[in-house]
Design a protein that fits this description.
The complex is a heterodimer of chains A (about 325) and B (about 450). A two-stranded antiparallel sheet of chain A has the order 1-2. Chain A is about 60% helix and about 0% strand. Chain A has about 325 residues and is mainly α. Chain A is globular and about 80 Å long. Chain B is an alpha/beta fold and about 450 residues long. Chain B has a domain of about 70 residues. Chain B is about 30% helix and about 20% strand. In chain B, the strands form 4 sheets. Chain B has a 6-stranded mixed β-sheet with strand order 1-14-13-17-15-16. In chain B, strands 2-8-7-4 form a 4-stranded antiparallel β-sheet, with no helix packed on it. In chain B, β5 and β6 form a beta hairpin. Classes of the chains: A mainly alpha (about 325), B alpha/beta (about 450). The structure holds iron/sulfur cluster (2 copies). One iron/sulfur cluster binds next to α12 and α13 of chain B.
Chain lengths: ~325, ~450
């Protein structure tokens, strides 16, 4: 017998999931949202998305090759996702150079300083977004109007988001029943016909993405459902207390970045907890913080901050929240 | 209603290529090498020496303790030497090498095919007979069966579970046995019930073996106290703790034995061997072995004498394929890769799986992307990614605290990991190190 056999410990077969297949699963889930934002925001959306994705990929390539000196793994799709999500979190009239800075911060600071995919504590796209929000508050909060600004980019007609209108109005002592006349209906917002960051307006499309992600087992239901459920319940409680002072819970789910955050940002593998129980705590925390910031904070929108804050708690959650071990039960039935 | 265990599990492709191949008697080899340690526990003590003549079924090495097992000759002929031979563990083990001459069986063995239903032995006599016949767990665990039948003082067996799950992909030896030797294994089950003094036995079979479920369900009508439970396909359902959970809903406590929840589990192959030993006086010296693989010409189920070289089995299944990369003793999830095919078949060899070169190498290892998939598939509720990290850091205190010793080495975590992380390799290392620490603490 001369044939040399390969010897290695078990198991000897492997499942089909690879980093690439999972990341591509996310990319496919993002397609409906992408199409809706192109439909409503046209040229501006296209420019912002292309700039963001390309610069994210290039930065990842350059940083891993020349600074970390590792073999760049841009084909795994994770840089494309970060680029897309960053684009989805900014207005469609954001100048190209600001988008590039955002991508540099997202990839360079949010991801690569920690050693690349798998090691970053904070969601890179949100790190980029929050950096831009703090550095360029004006550009980051002028929102092109949907449909009518399709053929415009920097010169788009702008307006406030429903969350912004409500926050401003309530601050000035207006009643909810007055304010709802100034914003699109929940249904209009749900299909995406509303001002806002270019990927967060498409509620329906995001839900399609969610169904795909669950069906393909890329993610589990724990984070999105607990986060949205908490937003619904907490904002619903305030609404029941005083419907003239607080918006209804359905509005809070559909408006702003709640859906985008719940489905695509909070579920980021690297920056969310490892056990189902931990994921529930994480989702509930984000939901709760989101409502608190929206109702009582300085900003009209709080999803990004809420996710980043809870990202910081992930190591602690992982340390204390353990899966139910087999054989731990003392009682048997 | 279909049952299954509740926590974790994976669904590897089943690839039961040899499921329709009836069991075939493999031709006698020219020589056999029979290791004196084919079971968990102390090696047996050889009773023969060079140039001794032996008969088929003759005791050639004696159990050397409570946890040990007798070894019988699988052929008739002459002992040519006692030497060390590499077995499926990859280590050299002392083996008795016998040159085959004819096939002369011990006279007391009943070689007639008649079914013998009546059980004449008492509970104690059965346990003794099982021990004398060298029967060990044939599912692959090779734990001496009489030890499992001796219920510790103060404990009581309530239910006997017969493991017909065969959840490892590719393997079909138990499946064939359930189809072709159903009556024998049901009588074997009754013998085990009598030994354990239980009135209830359940045979657990996954529903990818619908023919076996149907066949045994029909037959159990004639056997009091035995029923068949169909199970939803999920790996590692054949794990003792998972099977008990699936059938009874009870969880064997961490660090405890099945008897702690009143259950005793035996494999279908073991039940068949018990029938042959108790009713036919035939000690364990042959077993059914699946030889399979996608490039194997004739995937087969062979009845093989213990000590036959794996090379003979592969030859009988059409020869070693050109593209062979790995030869595995057992299934793809828990089997051992052989370093040479000149390895003897032992009591624990359930199958020989030949993987093509292209499926034999592991993928490139990436950083953990924290997808939590390993956590969600672990049937023991552990966190494989964490166990690997703390083992890597040699933080064994934490490794123990995170319950590394509960790991059943099913491989589900390594199987699912999208970053190809060698989770189980590290966890095994962690178990060894923590095991040492626990032993020094006790000492
Ligand atoms: S940690 Fe052990 S028990 Fe859990 S999946 Fe991995 S091998 Fe199986
Ligand atoms: S399956 Fe692999 S990549 Fe995913 S958490 Fe476990 S070790 Fe990390």
């Amino acid at each position: 017998m001369s044939k040399l056999l390969i010897v290695s410990p078990s198991p000897h077969n492997y499942g089909n999931d690879t980093i690439k297949s999972l990341m591509y699963g996310v990319l496919i889930a993002l397609i409906p949202t992408l199409l809706v934002s192109l439909y409503f925001f046209g040229v501006g959306a296209l420019i912002v998305i292309v700039t963001s994705v390309i610069s994210a990929v290039i930065f990842e390539y350059l940083i891993s090759k020349y600074i970390l000196k590792t073999k760049p793994s841009i084909m795994d799709g994770s840089a494309v996702i970060t680029g897309l999500l960053l684009a989805f979190n900014v207005p469609s009239n954001l100048p190209v150079w600001i988008v590039i800075i955002g991508a540099l911060v997202a990839i360079g600071i949010g991801k690569m300083t920690f050693g690349g995919l798998g090691n970053n504590p904070f969601n890179p796209a949100l790190v980029g977004r929050v950096f831009l929000l703090v550095s360029f508050p004006v550009q980051m909060t002028t929102w092109p109007a949907p449909i009518q600004s399709r053929l415009q980019y920097l010169d788009a007609v702008t307006g406030a988001t429903p969350l912004g209108i409500v926050k401003e109005g309530l601050r000035n002592g207006e009643q909810v029943s007055e304010l709802v006349k100034q914003i699109p209906s929940n249904m209009q917002m749900f299909i995406g016909n509303v001002g806002g960051s270019l990927g967060e307006v498409a509620g329906l499309a995001i839900l399609l993405g969610l169904i795909w992600l669950l069906y393909k087992k890329v993610i589990t239901w724990h984070i999105p459902i607990s986060m949205l459920g908490t937003i619904f319940i907490v904002s619903g409680i305030f609404w029941l207390i005083n419907p003239e002072k607080y918006m209804d819970p359905v509005f809070h789910i559909i408006a702003g970045g709640a859906l985008l955050g719940a489905v695509f940002m909070a579920t980021d593998y690297v920056t969310s907890p490892m056990t189902p129980k931990g994921q529930l705590i994480f989702g509930i925390g984000i939901g709760f913080l989101t409502v608190m910031i929206r109702l009582f904070g300085a900003y009209p929108e709080g999803v990004s901050f809420a996710i980043l804050i809870m990202n910081a708690f992930v190591p602690i959650i992982n340390l204390y929240v353990k899966p139910k071990r087999f054989g731990e039960v003392v009682k048997n039935g | 209603m279909l049952k299954t265990f509740s926590k974790g599990g994976v669904h590897p492709p089943e690839n039961k290529l040899s499921a329709i191949q009836t069991i075939e008697q493999l031709a006698l080899p020219k020589t056999v090498s029979i290791p004196i340690s084919q079971h968990i526990g102390a090696p047996a003590t050889p009773l023969v020496k060079k140039n001794d003549s032996v008969k088929t079924g003759q005791l050639i090495a004696k159990s050397s303790g409570f946890v040990s097992a007798n070894i019988h000759s699988s052929v008739s002929g002459k002992v040519i030497k006692i030497d060390s031979v590499v077995d499926s563990s990859g280590y050299k083990k002392q083996s008795i090498i016998i040159e085959v001459e004819g096939d002369e069986w011990l006279e007391e063995i009943d070689r007639t095919p008649e079914l013998k239903k009546e059980i004449n032995l008492s509970s104690e006599e059965i346990i003794k007979k099982v021990g004398e016949s060298g029967i060990v767990g044939l599912g692959g665990a090779t734990f001496p069966s009489q030890v499992k039948l001796s219920v510790p003082r103060g404990m009581k067996a309530e239910i006997l579970i017969i493991n017909g799950v065969e959840c490892e992909p590719y393997l079909t030896s138990d499946h064939r046995l359930m189809l072709e030797k159903a009556d024998e294994l049901l009588i074997g089950t009754q013998i085990l019930m009598k030994a354990l003094k239980v009135t209830q036995a359940v045979i657990g079979i996954e529903n990818n073996k619908a023919d076996a479920i149907e066949h045994l369900t029909n037959l159990t009508k004639q056997y009091q106290g035995i029923s068949v439970q169909a199970l939803k396909v999920k790996y590692p359902q054949g794990g003792e703790k998972q099977l008990i959970k699936a059938i009874t809903g009870r969880e064997v406590p961490s660090g405890g034995l099945p008897i702690a929840v009143g259950a005793v589990v035996h494999n279908v192959g073991t039940a068949f061997a018990v029938y042959e030993a108790v009713q036919k006086n035939k000690p364990l010296f042959e077993r059914v072995v699946t030889v399979t693989g996608k490039s194997v010409k004739k995937p087969s189920n062979f009845l093989v004498r213990i000590g036959t070289s794996v090379a003979n089995l592969i030859e009988a299944a059409g020869g070693l394929p050109e593209d062979t990369g790995k030869v595995i003793s057992g299934g793809p999830m828990m089997g051992r890769a052989l370093s040479t095919i000149d390895t003897p078949v032992t009591k624990g060899t359930s199958g020989i799986l030949i993987l093509p070169e292209g499926e034999s190498r592991r993928g490139k290892i990436y950083d953990c992307i924290r997808c939590a998939k390993c956590v969600s598939v672990c049937p023991m509720g552990l966190e494989p990614y964490l166990l690997m990290t703390v083992t890597e850091q040699q933080n064994y205190e934490r490794t123990e605290h995170e319950r590394v010793m509960d790991c059943i080495e099913c491989g589900s975590c390594s199987y699912i990991c999208p970053s190809n992380r060698p989770l189980l390799d590290y966890i095994r290392l962690g178990k060894v190190e923590v095991g040492k620490i626990i032993r020094t603490r006790k000492a």
